[in-house]
């Protein structure tokens, strides 16, 4: 789905409405715009711009560069326009969002222009491009981040990435990808790397006692799911910051 801001589009929509082909009453905006995309043709959507993905990786045990094991359906905000029900995957090695313009069966996926991707949502999780429309580019910020927690005092982001190592087995050389996770916190309009309890206390020295108490009670979760642990911690801190 995309809301197009051009006069010709509006005229087409108006003519179809007046002719009785569509009825806007009782429909929400998403259903109207999804219908419009079907009528105008997916190949004409602005999002269908980008370089063709040329993936020559040779992998073992399906251990590839992507975040999702297969292409999934999601929502993308591209160039200030929202597209629903698009088929995408997230390339963690190059930090690119990959689109199949013609659906799951499409054999020619494209790499979306990162400067135009504001965010994408998949399975109730939202991923934002922190470099999008930034007047100041922060050295520690690079591309897409999962929103871990967004509060009124602070914002916690999770960075998913993969490194690649060439290895050799009985079948010859192959690419081995290893996933890495990094954490970023935005507080008082500044970005901070989160690497340890000490790095958190450095940001919130006045809440050192609360942080130590939270770690003491919940440190078992760090090895199980560090992302969830930090999400819970910053949710807790947000509720206590004056």
Structure description:
This protein has 242 residues and is of the alpha+beta class. The protein has a domain at 1-40. Helices cover 26% and strands 34% of the residues. It has 6 helices and 11 strands. The protein has helices at 7-18, 29-40, 197-203, 208-218, 220-224, 226-240, and strands spanning 50-52, 72-78, 81-91, 96-100, 110-112, 117-122, 125-129, 144-150, 154-169, 172-187, 190-193. An 11-stranded antiparallel β-sheet has the order 1-5-4-3-2-6-7-8-9-10-11. A hairpin with a 2-residue loop joins strand 9 and strand 10. The radius of gyration is 22 Å and the shape is globular. The two termini are 41 Å apart. The relative contact order is 0.10. Mean pLDDT is 85; it is low at 1-13 and 24-33.
Short description:
This protein is of the alpha+beta class. The protein has 6 helices and 11 strands.
Index terms:
single chain, 242 residues, alpha+beta, eleven-stranded antiparallel beta sheet, 34% strand, disordered N terminus
Strand line-up in the sheet with most strands: 1-5-4-3-2-6-7-8-9-10-11
- Approximately how much helix is present in the residues? 25-40%
- The fraction of residues assigned to DSSP E strands is 25-35%
Distance between the termini: 41 Å
Number of helices: 6
Secondary structure layout:
Layout: H1 7-18, H2 29-40, E1 50-52, E2 72-78, E3 81-91, E4 96-100, E5 110-112, E6 117-122, E7 125-129, E8 144-150, E9 154-169, E10 172-187, E11 190-193, H3 197-203, H4 208-218, H5 220-224, H6 226-240
Antiparallel strand pairs: 1-5, 2-3, 2-6, 3-4, 4-5, 6-7, 7-8, 8-9, 9-10, 10-11
